[in-house]
Amino acid sequence: MAYKYKPPYTITTEILNYVVKIGEILGELKAETDTAVVPKLRRDNKIKTIQASLAIEGNTLSLEQVTAVIAGKRVLGLPREVREVRNTFTAYEELPNWSPHSRKDLLAAHGLLMAGLADETGCFRSGGVGIQRGSVVVHMAPPASQVSRLMDDLLSWLRRTDECPLVKSCLFHYEFEFIHPFQDGNGRLGRLWQTLILSRWRPIFALLPVESVIRDRQQEYYTALRTSDNASDATPFVTFMLSAILQALEEIKDSTDHVTDHVTDQVKRLLHVIRNSQCSASEIMAKLGLSHRPTFRKNYLQPALHSRLIEMTHPDTPRSRNQQYRITARGTKLLTTFQIKGEQQG
What we know:
This protein is mainly alpha-helical. It is 61% helix and 5% strand.
């Protein structure tokens, strides 16, 4: 059967520029992501992705709480929000086992994401649905009777199109949100499925926390959806999503760039004194023999944090009285590179 369905969009100069820039960064990252950086990206970014995707939907759990839930610890939070974290983690763990073109896999993914959270899970919605922003209905989805056909058309187009994977993943995301095929969970599943599409093209996308960028630019995300709806043209949404992908890649590139040539002697000394422990700022200063806090922060602490050689134990509350600092895997690797074990301690 010949399908004529095609999402409405235009390849603009802006879109082409984003695609080129994304391709350049992917090339620069290839050597890094083929080696030791992958485990760190996977560990750090999966939790960020889950927390951010759920935060977009109103989940209030912090990054620290999400980390605890995934580790099987009890946290003080709403049972529904805890369940959302567990479900989403399970779904992302299953990502490598799904085909982007499979209706069966899409329904299975929804079943995992929304288990215990919605009346209709793992099946297309049986009733009408609209999207509200405050008291205003900003989108009325197609009738439930049309959903099965529309989704079959969309999945068939995804399978046969020769469009650039970057563009087609954004188009799928937009069309999926337009159809709104499920009673609930459409936003988080649409973002998950775009990740799946991209990860089949370049595995690094399974490690890329694009959701964190969307969370930080949430109003732009909704505006792009609304603008595309009003114009009956997916171009504004594709443009926004490519800019978000580019931003996420640039942040990954910044975090994996080699910093050996830029590490000062002060930062090396800081890494050395906390290498096997976690310490408060005051404890680090004492070990370094420093008494002037502004100098310590400017020359030691902030450069080490900025280079991601150390990290906070309470990143969501930087000014916490219980804040401590510990060396990262990147910092430990750098210590070995410099072989500073015998360097003078402060």
